[in-house]
Amino acid sequence: MKNIIRSILIMSLLVSCNHETMDEKIKRQAQEFTESSCPKPMDKYTMLDSLVYTPDVRMMCYHYSVSGLMDTTSVYTSEMLDIFHGNLLDNIRSNTGLIDLKRHGITFRYRYTSSTDTTEYMNFIFTPEDYR
Question: What is the pTM (predicted TM-score) of this model?
Answer without folding.
Answer: 0.83
